[in-house]
């Protein structure tokens, strides 16, 4: 690509480049021709789910149990290409793989892994990840959903909000505080079939963002669970946070996919549009916008690639993930807004992608840790002082 000034593609090995191009072809063929319709209708395309399974991107970073076992960089490149289509589609892959499947893979029993992961990898079984609550979105430590120990298992009560896929999922990974846990009370994870009596998922509508995706309010009213519903390895907030870091990693790549598509759209438009009898791209102010977008796009991609290399060598730290999530989503939003300005009035229509991407990125900027949360994570790393409370 002409705008790959730093030749970042040249930093990829053959397997990485092959994976990227495979997912790019899928996005060009299946997502981009349909996304404006899906977005306008607020429709999540369920027919894509088995196709994404066949593509091998569901839980693709996990080893065994029917998962592809690909590298962190290969997963990141896949997230980038999918979000070049739409954040909602990349979010599905993230919720399914980085959150729900990762929770089972890391913290589940061998029976739970064998039972759920292969069908989830194939896209035959959809999962969701229920952590965020209506009154404590950025503060899981204030969780009020409770699982009480009973003679036969557990009784679950509480509520969650902004839970992706909950109304279409068959299995939910639910995080709750325990009461009467023989191993000591605290935050534990549970596998909850969504057809259990007392489980209710209601899509949040209408939305101005992530319209080709599904987010729900979820209510648990005396949901009875057997003992084997418990994820045995997950104790405390380390369980959900380990999954969140996987999702945050994918986000830093995905945001650059949305930014790249917005930039390419603006560059093409500026080259073809001829106000004042000359190409829009020949004007100094337009060139400044294009160059500024290119710089931040290349820096964001380089940051994601470096982070992926760290992850593949087992050296990635949580604060480094916060650097990528905070920077790349923030800069992707700026790129999309600048791209929209080059399109003029045409940029507010669904004929062009930048404003759709910008709307989606407002959600991406909020979930898996707001700017403020990641700023405080990094502030604590730099100073040694936690500023989350008080």
UniProtKB/TrEMBL annotation:
It catalyses: glutaryl-CoA + oxidized [electron-transfer flavoprotein] + 2 H(+) = (2E)-butenoyl-CoA + reduced [electron-transfer flavoprotein] + CO2. One of its GO terms (molecular function) is fatty-acyl-CoA binding. Pathway: Amino-acid metabolism; lysine degradation; Amino-acid metabolism; tryptophan metabolism. This is glutaryl-CoA dehydrogenase (ETF). InterPro entries: Acyl-CoA_DH_CS (IPR006089), Acyl-CoA_Oxase/DH_mid-dom (IPR006091), Acyl-CoA_Oxase/DH_mid-dom_sf (IPR046373), AcylCo_DH-like_C (IPR036250), AcylCo_DH/oxidase_C (IPR009075), AcylCoA_DH/ox_N (IPR013786), AcylCoA_DH/ox_N_sf (IPR037069), AcylCoA_DH/oxidase_NM_dom_sf (IPR009100). It comes from Psychromicrobium silvestre. Residues 236-380 form the Acyl-CoA dehydrogenase/oxidase C-terminal domain. PROSITE patterns: ACYL_COA_DH_1. Its EC number is 1.3.8.6. Residues 14-124 form the Acyl-CoA dehydrogenase/oxidase N-terminal domain. SUPFAM superfamilies: Acyl-CoA dehydrogenase C-terminal domain-like (SSF47203), Acyl-CoA dehydrogenase NM domain-like (SSF56645). Pfam families: Acyl-CoA_dh_1, Acyl-CoA_dh_M, Acyl-CoA_dh_N. It is an enzyme of class 1 (oxidoreductase). Belongs to the acyl-CoA dehydrogenase family. Keywords: FAD, Flavoprotein, Oxidoreductase, Transit peptide. Its cofactor is FAD. Residues 128-223 form the Acyl-CoA oxidase/dehydrogenase middle domain. One of its GO terms (biological process) is fatty acid beta-oxidation using acyl-CoA dehydrogenase.
């Amino acid at each position: 690509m002409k705008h790959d000034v730093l030749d970042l593609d040249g930093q990829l090995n053959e397997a990485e480049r092959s994976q990227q191009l495979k997912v790019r072809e899928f996005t060009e063929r299946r997502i981009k021709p349909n996304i404006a319709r899906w977005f306008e209708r607020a429709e999540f395309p369920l027919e894509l789910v088995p196709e994404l399974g066949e593509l091998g991107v569901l839980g693709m970073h996990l080893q065994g149990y029917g998962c592809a076992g690909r590298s962190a960089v290969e997963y990141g490149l896949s997230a980038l290409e999918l979000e070049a289509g739409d954040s909602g589609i990349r979010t599905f892959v993230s919720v399914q793989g980085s959150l729900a499947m990762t929770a089972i893979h890391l913290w589940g029993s061998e029976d739970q892994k064998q039972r759920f992961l292969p069908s989830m990898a194939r896209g035959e079984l959809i999962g969701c990840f229920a952590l965020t609550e209506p009154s404590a979105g950025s503060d899981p430590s204030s969780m009020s959903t409770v699982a009480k120990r009973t003679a036969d298992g557990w009784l679950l009560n509480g509520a969650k909000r902004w839970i992706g896929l909950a109304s279409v999922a068959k299995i939910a990974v639910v995080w709750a505080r325990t009461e009467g846990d023989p191993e000591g009370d605290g935050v534990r994870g549970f596998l909850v079939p969504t057809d259990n009596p007392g489980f209710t998922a209601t899509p949040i509508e209408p939305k101005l963002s992530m319209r080709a995706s599904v987010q729900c309010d979820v209510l648990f009213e005396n949901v009875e669970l057997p003992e084997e519903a418990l994820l045995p390895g997950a104790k405390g907030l380390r369980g959900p946070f380990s999954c969140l870091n996987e999702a945050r990693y994918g986000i830093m790549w995905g945001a650059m996919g949305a930014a790249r598509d917005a930039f390419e759209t603006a560059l093409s438009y500026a080259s073809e549009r001829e106000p004042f009898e000359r190409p829009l791209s020949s004007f100094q102010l337009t060139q400044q916008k294009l160059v500024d977008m290119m710089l931040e796009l290349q820096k964001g991609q380089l940051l994601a690639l470096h982070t992926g290399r760290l992850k593949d060598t087992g050296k990635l730290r949580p604060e480094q993930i916060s650097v990528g999530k905070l920077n790349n989503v923030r800069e992707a939003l700026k790129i999309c807004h600048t791209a929209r300005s080059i399109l003029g009035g045409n940029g507010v229509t669904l004929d062009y992608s930048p404003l759709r991407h910008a709307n989606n990125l407002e959600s991406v900027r909020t979930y898996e840790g707001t700017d403020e949360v990641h700023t405080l994570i990094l502030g604590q790393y730099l100073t040694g002082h936690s500023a989350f409370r008080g």
